[in-house]
Amino acid sequence: MWRAALLAASLLLPTGAWAGNESGDSAANAKPHFSAPEAAAFAKQIEQNLAAKGARVAIVFRTSRPHDKLPPGIAYTHGAFWVHSEITTADGRHLQGYAVYNLYHGDGKTLPVSQSYLKQDFPLNFASVSAEDDVGVILPTPEMQRRLKVLIGTPAYTRLHITDYSLVSNPLNARYQNCVEFMLDVVAAAAWETESYPQIKANLTRWFEPTTVKAGFLQRTLGPMADTRLRTDDHPGAIRTATYESLSAFMLKHELATEAYVIKRSQ
């Protein structure tokens, strides 16, 4: 009986249906969309675009699934902070470039997939697992860039991390977190200049409008059995989560960002 129920859940959950906030290295196991030289060129293109805009901090999104496999109104599955920094290479050289600050879920081996961790890597890591030829960008205002650069990578930044992970975590609730909710919490901490997590969530409950993800009764009930990353008990009603679309709308509306745009890979 339970095997039949799980099969029904997997059939009712089309690929990417719950991937509005997938964050993790699991995408690296998929067939690469780019060759290594293409991924390197795309990463450099994104860096050059951000540098041309004078971005010290930008929020960049990719998708590890094709756009047509994602729910309507959701374009990307993972986002990260890109911070202009001095980077030390393996051979000891010091270069100017972007460091990428992520929240990833566990790989199921060294860490359960229902848990997450913070990791700093680089633009090539980010671009190489994209499943599409575009990324979404949110460019914070100069003042927000200043505040974010001061915060990112510090103990205060780390304290905003909730290790319990859900693909569709409720951004108005502190029970679970995914990559976009984590970035939203960091943005909120910088915007309101507070390290109080209860205050951050109280402010977001008043000012942030999450994205609604359509889910039928069987999907919501049986989905967690099919994928342990899919936990929905933090949602009292409809499934509402943070996405590129809702984060960019929030930041633009409240003058925390100057623009949100898409970079298409040069062919």
Give an overview in words.
The chain has helices at residues 2-12, 36-52, 123-128, 142-151, 155-159, 179-192, 197-207, 217-226, 244-253; strands at 57-62, 78-88, 94-105, 116-121, 134-140, 211-213, 239-241, 257-264. With 267 residues, it is α+β, with helices and mostly antiparallel strands. It has one domain: endopeptidase domain like (from Nostoc punctiforme) (endopeptidase fold (from Nostoc punctiforme), Alpha-Beta Complex). Strand 2 (78-88) and strand 3 form a beta hairpin. The radius of gyration is 18 Å and the shape is globular. The N and C termini lie far apart (50 Å). Mean pLDDT is 87; it is low at 1-29.
Write the layout of secondary structure elements.
Layout: H1 2-12, H2 36-52, E1 57-62, E2 78-88, E3 94-105, E4 116-121, H3 123-128, E5 134-140, H4 142-151, H5 155-159, H6 179-192, H7 197-207, E6 211-213, H8 217-226, E7 239-241, H9 244-253, E8 257-264
Antiparallel strand pairs: 1-2, 1-5, 2-3, 3-4, 5-8, 6-7
Helix pairs in contact: 1-8, 4-6, 6-7
